[in-house]
């Protein structure tokens, strides 16, 4: 018997038991669909978190004042010292290290922004021109050189204060100081709970004058490459320790480490939910086996007849395997469609969650459906092939 | 030709041994028309099944057209069954979900013929058996006589050397049964060996050679 005929004959017998076939296909489809949707959710969560980190900048090393230690408190506490503050000089010293692509000191505070009779309390970032490339922020208008009294405003502020779109070059007041707008940020939305559309970026010197402080909130450093991060981190700790009279009173963190941890946790979580969903596929496999066993019993006479007109046992076995193949193929395909439909619905309901099913999950879901279907039909197919034709013909 | 030598077939029913065939030896030449008669349980159906390679004897030797077929593997026996033997059953044994034409096509599919060739041969046989207008009907839509004609068409489409019929008219009324017998006899006239198992005396008498069985043994063989 030719493969083509095996496939078409088995398809014919599936079509003749429509309800039963549909139910199996549905069971299979739900299993595959569950794998696809759940991995889409898991992977979406992972991508969401990774994306949030990436929007902070790539190859980022961040210095914060104070020693974050889980055991004991910082060293200075025991000696009655307070940790030293981070200063602009610290930032410059760090910025000279090899392996640094660019660096940005950072001050954060709030002040009143006033212009043309409008007044608003805004979040202010004090930094230099490199802050924009480091934080992956872009300007929609103008430029930012970090020159004195120049500021960049977020898109929402620009819209609210200058609805005519003529913000560039306008003079505004921040607190008690006057500034000229040199650039407008393009729309970016939320990033780690921080809406960049409603911030004002000013040169770091002006910010320190505005907030009457000498200290920095953070130093952001972008390394040349991923490989440069670890040595740079060591060098930065070393330089800052020297500058701070041998005290390790700053914390240097890399977002890479945090990101990698989240990535690992969420990937494991995705695999776990995929595994749970795959259990439903195993259940569907058992269903296939049960239904095929019933089919063999119901079609005993037909199997006997096929043997009587000269079908070898192998042909009979192949017929039943082909039926399982069709059922699981249909189940897999329908499940794939259902899964993608479900993921689409999730993306529609939660636009911030990139719930795209990963390719490996779709492939694994369909492959598992095919394999369980065929494995489940091995026993029924073997039973059919082994039937004694004389007894089978008499329907026993 | 068919040559059975000391064929024994034993069934076990509980702890009882039933010798359905007890040391049976029989020669049937090509082109013969043989009836096998006997009461229920006399072993006549088992004999037909052994001849048709559906059942394996427990001992003895079976030669078909000069070669020993008892020792063949399951797959080889299936091929012999397909190419040399045609079966006709009392209850027709048509596949209910397939049309008449598809039922007739089954042996050609098992033989591995190409669809175009199959169509040609099925059409020719449908025409020869006067079933052309019933080609797309399912068995449930056919009369008993038509069903048996489809079954005979299926049994003979690969031109077997022997046609084995087990009570071929048992489910048909007298007139239709006579028609079916006439059809089988026409096939015999064209050279096919015809072996009919029946317990209808009138039917058995039409054969040219009459074999009588009882308790697994041949008790009469006359021409």
Distance between the termini of chain B: 17 Å
**Biggest β-sheet description of chain B:** 6 strands, mixed
Outline of chain B: globular
The CATH architecture category of chain B equals 3-Layer(aba) Sandwich
Question: Radius of gyration of chain A, Cα only, in angstroms?
Answer: 33 Å
Q: Note the total helix count of chain A.
A: 13
H/E element order of chain B: EEEHEEHEHHHEHEHEE
Kindly report the average pLDDT value of chain B: 92
Number of self-contained structural domains of chain A: 2
Order of helices and strands of chain A: HHEHHEEHEEHEEEHEHEHHHHH
Helicity range of chain A: 55-70%
Task: Describe this protein's structure.
The complex is a heterodimer of chains A (396) and B (223). By secondary structure, chain A is an alpha+beta fold. Chain A has 13 helices and ten strands. In chain A, strands 2-3-8-5-7-6 form a six-stranded mixed β-barrel. Mean pLDDT of chain A is 86; it is low at 69-81. Chain B is α/β, with parallel strands linked by helices and 223 residues long. Chain B has a single domain (32-42, 74-222), classed as Rossmann fold (3-Layer(aba) Sandwich). The two termini of chain B are 17 Å apart.
Salient structural properties:
heterodimer; A: 396 residues; alpha+beta; 6-stranded mixed barrel; 13 helices; 10 strands; B: 35% helix
């Amino acid at each position: 018997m030719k493969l083509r005929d095996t496939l078409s004959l088995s398809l014919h017998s599936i079509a003749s038991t429509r309800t039963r076939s549909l139910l199996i296909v549905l069971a299979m489809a739900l299993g595959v669909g569950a794998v696809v949707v759940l991995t889409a959710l898991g992977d979406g969560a992972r991508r969401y978190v990774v994306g949030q980190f990436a929007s902070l900048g790539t190859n980022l090393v961040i210095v914060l004042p104070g020693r974050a230690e889980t055991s004991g408190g910082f060293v200075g506490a025991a000696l009655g010292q307070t940790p030293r503050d981070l200063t602009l000089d610290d930032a410059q010293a760090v910025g000279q290290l090899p392996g640094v692509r660019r660096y940005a000191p950072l001050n954060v505070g709030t002040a009143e922004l006033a212009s043309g009779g409008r007044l608003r309390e805004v979040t202010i970032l004090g930094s230099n021109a490199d802050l924009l490339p480091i934080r992956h922020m872009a300007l929609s208008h103008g430029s930012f050189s970090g020159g004195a009294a120049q500021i960049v405003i977020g898109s929402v502020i620009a819209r609210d204060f200058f609805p005519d779109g003529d913000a560039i070059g306008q003079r505004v007041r921040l607190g008690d100081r006057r500034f000229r707008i040199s650039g407008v940020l393009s729309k970016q939305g939320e990033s780690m709970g921080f809406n960049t559309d409603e911030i004002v970026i000013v040169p770091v010197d002006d910010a320190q004058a505005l907030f009457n402080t000498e200290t920095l909130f953070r130093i952001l450093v972008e390394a040349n490459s991923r490989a440069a991060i670890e040595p740079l981190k060591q060098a930065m700790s070393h330089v800052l320790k020297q500058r701070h009279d041998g005290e390790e009173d700053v914390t240097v963190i890399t977002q890479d480490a945090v990101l990698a941890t989240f990535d690992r946790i969420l990937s494991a979580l995705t695999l776990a939910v995929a595994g749970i969903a795959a259990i439903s596929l195993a259940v569907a496999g058992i269903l296939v086996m049960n239904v095929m066993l019933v089919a063999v019993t119901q079609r005993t006479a037909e199997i006997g007849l096929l043997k009587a007109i000269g079908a070898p046992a192998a042909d009979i076995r192949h017929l039943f395997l082909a039926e399982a193949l069709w059922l699981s193929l249909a189940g897999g395909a329908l499940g794939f469609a259902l899964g993608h439909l479900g993921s689409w619905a999730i993306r529609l309901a939660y636009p911030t969650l990139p719930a795209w099913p990963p390719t490996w999950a779709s492939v694994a879901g369909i492959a598992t459906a095919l394999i369980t279907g065929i494995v489940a039909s091995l026993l029924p197919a073997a039973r059919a092939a082994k039937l004694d034709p004389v007894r089978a013909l008499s329907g026993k | 030709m068919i040559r059975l030598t000391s064929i024994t077939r034993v069934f076990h029913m509980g702890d009882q041994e039933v010798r359905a065939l007890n040391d049976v030896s029989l020669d049937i030449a090509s082109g013969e028309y043989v009836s096998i008669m006997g009461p229920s349980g006399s072993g006549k159906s088992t004999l037909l099944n052994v001849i048709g390679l559906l059942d394996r004897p427990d001992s003895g030797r079976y030669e078909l057209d000069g070669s020993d077929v008892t020792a063949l593997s399951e797959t080889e026996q299936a091929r012999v069954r397909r190419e040399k033997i045609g079966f006709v059953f009392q209850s027709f044994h048509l596949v209910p979900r397939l049309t008449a034409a598809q039922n007739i096509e089954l042996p050609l599919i098992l033989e591995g013929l190409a669809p175009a060739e199959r169509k040609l041969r099925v059409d020719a046989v449908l025409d020869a058996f006067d079933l052309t207008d019933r080609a797309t009907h399912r068995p449930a839509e056919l009369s008993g006589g038509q069903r048996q004609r489809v079954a005979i068409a299926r049994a003979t489409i690969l031109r077997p050397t022997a046609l084995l019929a087990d009570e071929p008219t048992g489910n048909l009324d007298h007139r239709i049964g006579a028609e079916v017998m006439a059809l089988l006899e026409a096939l015999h006239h064209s050279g096919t060996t015809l072996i009919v198992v029946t317990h209808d005396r009138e039917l058995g008498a039409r054969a040219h050679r009459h074999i009588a069985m009882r308790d697994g043994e041949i008790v009469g063989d006359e021409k």
